[in-house]
């Protein structure tokens, strides 16, 4: 089993192109399933009825809906498009001038003033891209570049800076830029929608709604599209109940459309992942006379997949055929993902063939689902075949493709080999890549690998808030409490607001440590991530049994057979 897992990444490396068929997935696992004749089956469905069983479960952390994540892209997501024309040498000069900004900002500003770099839109976008997780030096550079002769910020640069400030919850500073855009007569509704989304991400629902109505204050009419943007932002960041209340409380202002219901339904299905609430809202939608379309069914199928109910996925899919609702690519991708994660690769491949027969060619999301399922099943040879088929079709490899492989990794070596393969094939890792790796490595207690990864993140532009939160929680659950507190302080120094749960956890430990002082200074010293904690017991002497009732912060967490136990 381990030899198979270690060969997976080498098998994924490019070789001669090879197409796959349903016979490729022969030998899939055989299980016995109970089929109930009362369940509706479409005669045109390529899915065999023997896999239908209400007790069959599938993975709950799917990403089959990644192709619909483009509705909330921020300007800093296309950050590298303008950086190619900017001189990399000038970018490095600016970045080096701003080094050490957190410790000595005045000196960094002096170096920036003397750097001798000519400001340009390409340079500004490239530098802001590199500093997207450090709002203070990014804003300092933004202000400096605005004073340079022959240059003035465009809407795109303003949006990039506002997105960075909103991400760091520096909303007052973001509003100052909006006022500046208004004075320059370059303010657009998209600017306020961008800030609205950042408020929704910070769970500031009231301020998000207030920003929406600020469109009227700035002279922009409130359109149904803007209202849909507000609903989408609230639902995307799990404020679905507020979005539903907002929808029904504005029936007299904004005419109700099927799209409005689909946005909230998608929130219950893919953000909140609550099948009970999704069915309740489905009944509300149909009770008001709206007939669900392919988008509605796609959201419900995705929710059934995420909650691990393969039988419900197939029942809803069959119901679409009975009612004459033609499934779109997202519906097919959701079902393919559900089948692949449950191990039914023959059926998943048959559904891919059915997609092509209906002029719906599979996209990267389809192949990512197959690769992820095969990686989970430790079937490296077949994953390589799918990988080669994806390349032969001309589909661009995305970060999601490699994330599918990483989710099936079992060792730290596999994770880092996948990371190197990403770079080798011209697909640089994203922040989500590092967050996923840190979460896995902390779970495996591979703190030496975490230290290696953390150094690489710093060299690539620095970790973001999510990386700090995941690392702090991982260290805390591993018993490395002093290190967790050290990174907690570092996160605050860099201007990242901690989550309430993180702050409560660290403050509880700090209060206990201050109330019961440690026996020696060495006990409170922060440990290095690259080495395991060392004991200070003298040789030849019987170890002193520590009183964990008096020193609760010294307790270690032991993980065994899926349980976390306190020593």
Compact summary:
With 567 residues, the protein is mostly helical. It has helices at residues 2-12, 88-97, 105-113, 121-130, 135-146, 155-167, 171-183, 189-201, 205-217, 224-236, 240-249, 258-271, 275-287, 294-306, 310-323, 329-342, 345-357, 364-376, 380-392, 399-407, 412-424, 431-444, 447-459, 465-477, 481-493, 500-515, and strands spanning 557-560, 563-566. A two-stranded antiparallel ribbon has the order 1-2.
Q: Largest beta sheet, briefly?
A: 2 strands, antiparallel
> Which secondary-structure class do the elements indicate?
mainly alpha
Number of helices: 26
Based on CA inertia axes, which overall geometry fits?
Answer: globular
**Contiguous uncertain segments of 5+ residues:** 1-6, 15-45, 52-74, 76-85, 518-527, 530-541
Rounded to the nearest angstrom, the radius of gyration is: 26 Å
Report the strand count: 2
Biggest sheet, strands in spatial order? 1-2
Order of helices and strands: HHHHHHHHHHHHHHHHHHHHHHHHHHEE
Mean pLDDT: 80
Fraction of residues in β-strands: under 5%
| Share of helical residues | 55-70%
N-to-C span: 32 Å
């Amino acid at each position: 089993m381990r030899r198979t897992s270690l060969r997976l990444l080498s098998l994924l490396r490019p070789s001669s192109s090879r197409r796959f068929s349903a016979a490729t997935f022969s030998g899939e696992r055989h299980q016995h399933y109970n089929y109930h004749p009362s369940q509706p089956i479409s005669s045109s469905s390529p899915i065999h009825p023997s896999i239908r069983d209400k007790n069959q479960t599938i993975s709950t952390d799917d990403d089959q809906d990644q192709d619909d994540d483009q509705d909330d892209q921020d300007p800093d997501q296309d950050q590298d498009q303008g950086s190619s024309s900017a001189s990399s040498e000038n970018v490095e000069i600016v970045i080096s001038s701003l080094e050490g900004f957190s410790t000595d900002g005045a000196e960094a500003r002096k170096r920036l003033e003397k750097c001798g770099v000519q400001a340009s839109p390409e340079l500004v976008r490239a530098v802001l891209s590199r500093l997207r997780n450090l709002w203070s030096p990014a804003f300092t550079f933004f202000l400096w570049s605005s004073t340079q002769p022959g240059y003035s910020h465009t809407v795109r640069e303003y949006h990039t800076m506002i997105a960075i400030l909103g991400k760091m919850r520096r909303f007052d500073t973001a509003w100052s830029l909006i006022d500046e855009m208004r004075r320059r007569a370059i303010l657009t509704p998209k600017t306020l929608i961008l800030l609205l989304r950042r408020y929704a991400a910070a769970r500031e629902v009231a301020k998000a709604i207030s920003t929406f109505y600020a469109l009227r204050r700035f002279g922009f009419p409130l359109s149904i599209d803007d209202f849909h943007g507000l609903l989408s932002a609230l639902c995307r960041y799990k404020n679905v109940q507020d979005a539903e209340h907002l929808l029904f409380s504005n029936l007299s202002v904004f005419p109700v459309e099927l799209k409005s219901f689909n946005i909230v339904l998608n929130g219950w299905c893919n953000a909140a992942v609550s099948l009970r609430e999704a069915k309740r809202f489905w009944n509300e939608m149909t009770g008001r006379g709206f007939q669900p379309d392919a988008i509605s069914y796609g959201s419900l199928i995705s929710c059934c997949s995420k909650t691990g109910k393969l039988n419900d996925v197939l029942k809803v899919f069959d119901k679409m055929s009975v009612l004459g609702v033609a499934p779109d690519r997202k519906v097919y991708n959701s079902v393919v993902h559900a089948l692949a994660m449950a191990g039914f690769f023959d059926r998943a491949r048959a559904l891919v063939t059915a997609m092509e027969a209906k002029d719906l060619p599979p996209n990267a999301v389809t192949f990512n689902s197959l690769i992820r399922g095969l990686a989970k099943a430790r079937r490296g040879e077949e994953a390589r075949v799918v990988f080669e088929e994806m390349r032969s079709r001309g589909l661009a490899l995305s970060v999601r493709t490699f994330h599918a492989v990483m989710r099936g990794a079992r060792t730290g070596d596999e994770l880092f080999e996948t990371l190197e393969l990403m770079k080798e094939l011209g697909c640089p890792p994203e922040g989500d890549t590092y967050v996923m790796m840190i979460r896995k490595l902390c779970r495996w207690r591979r703190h030496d690998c975490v230290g290696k990864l953390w150094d690489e993140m710093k060299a690539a532009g620095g970790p973001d808030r999510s990386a700090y939160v995941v690392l702090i929680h991982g260290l805390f659950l591993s018993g490395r409490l002093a290190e967790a507190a050290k990174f907690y302080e570092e996160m605050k120094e860099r201007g990242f607001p901690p989550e309430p749960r993180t702050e409560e956890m660290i403050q509880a430990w700090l209060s206990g440590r201050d109330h019961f002082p440690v026996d020696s200074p060495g006990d409170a010293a922060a440990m290095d991530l690259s080495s395991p904690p060392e004991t200070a017991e003298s040789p030849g002497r019987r170890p002193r049994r520590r009183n964990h009732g008096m020193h609760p912060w010294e307790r270690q967490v032991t993980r065994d057979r899926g349980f976390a136990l306190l020593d």
